[in-house]
Design brief:
The protein is built from 4 helices and no strands. By secondary structure, the chain is mainly alpha-helical.
Length: about 130
């Protein structure tokens, strides 16, 4: 029997089908809301780490930096790319280089902790589901 994990002995082919426009339009509002919540959270993270007044739109720099990091081919997970974009933008809007660097690294840790919490919630719910299923 062939491996199902995509190894060289696997006969299963992975195919990606394009999303139809209806599905994209249905998911678009939820995606925008998700990014807006992350941006708002990043804005509040900035406010908690600095006393410098910044515009609320600075939170959108997180969405920009994250997407640029995703597009970075040479860096896994955008590691370093996202931080560089955040540092450049935060420095551009008036934060010192030290503050911008601190916020950038804190945002990576903030996001990592959030992802770990989601993973833990999924793991717990998976284990709980096994307990209640016959």
């Amino acid at each position: 029997m062939g491996r199902q994990d995509g190894g060289e002995n696997s006969k299963k082919k992975t195919q990606f089908s394009p999303l139809d426009p209806y599905t994209v339009l249905k998911l678009l509002p939820w995606t925008v809301i998700n990014w807006l919540f992350w941006s708002a959270g990043f804005y509040f993270l900035i406010l908690s780490l600095t006393e410098t007044q910044i515009p609320p739109t600075a939170g959108l720099s997180f969405a920009l930096a994250t997407n640029i990091g995703i597009l970075a081919i040479i860096s896994p997970g955008g590691l370093g790319v996202r931080e560089a974009v955040l540092i450049a933008y935060l420095n551009f809007i008036g934060l010192s280089l030290a503050e911008a660097t601190t916020i950038s690294v804190a945002s990576r840790l903030w996001f990592l902790i959030g992802e770990a919490m989601l993973f833990a919630a999924g793991l717990i719910s998976h284990k709980y589901k096994k307990l209640i299923e016959p």
